[in-house]
Design goal:
Layout: H1 3-20, H2 27-32, H3 37-55, H4 58-71, H5 76-88, H6 92-105, H7 110-122, H8 126-142, H9 146-159
Helix pairs in contact: 1-5, 1-7, 1-9, 3-4, 4-5, 5-6, 5-7, 6-7, 7-8, 8-9
Length: about 160
């Protein structure tokens, strides 16, 4: 399977839910009972970025995700979304960096592990890539997201040496 097909498959399978779901509220937002003005603006930028991503305008999506992260630097979902767009542009090192930040912010974000795994494998780091993809698969299974679990296993099969 070609790297572009793998990338497209993984992004559609693993990130689709993350890209259309609202960015999760931070702990301070949950305690205050709502979004502050900067988080509401970050959410708007994020959603506009998702629309640009869906239209195929990756540069515009990245710019909007970056703007959202400036306003809400603790939004793991937004880092994951930006990393997905960077990966589509074959900017794997930047994508890996964003996925790693997302994972540091939310260790249960399966899509971030999956995306980082694919980016690593496309960079030639197959062992690390498969390890991340396996972590993503296990998280999907634990979260009862069985479709994503089986899709991730199929991706591992497609790239495992």
């Amino acid at each position: 399977m070609s790297p572009q097909i793998l990338l497209s498959t993984l992004l559609s399978v693993l990130l689709a839910g993350s890209l259309i779901a609202p960015a999760p509220a931070s702990d301070s937002e949950r305690h205050e009972g709502g979004l502050s003005a900067p988080q509401a603006t970050a959410e708007t930028c994020y959603r506009q970025g998702v629309l640009q991503y869906q239209k195929g305008d990756l540069e515009a999506a990245i710019a909007l995700y970056t703007q959202a992260l400036t306003l809400d630097p603790d939004a793991a979902t937004i880092y994951t979304a930006r990393a997905g767009a960077l990966g589509q542009l074959e900017e794997y090192e930047a994508a890996i960096s964003d996925y790693s930040i997302a994972i540091a912010l939310d260790e249960t974000l399966a899509a971030a592990y999956g995306g980082r795994g694919l980016a690593r494998s496309l960079k030639g780091e197959l062992s690390a890539g498969v390890q991340d993809l396996w972590t993503a698969a296990q998280l999907f299974r634990q979260q009862d997201k069985l479709d994503q679990y089986f899709d991730t296993l199929a991706i591992i099969e497609g790239i495992a040496p």
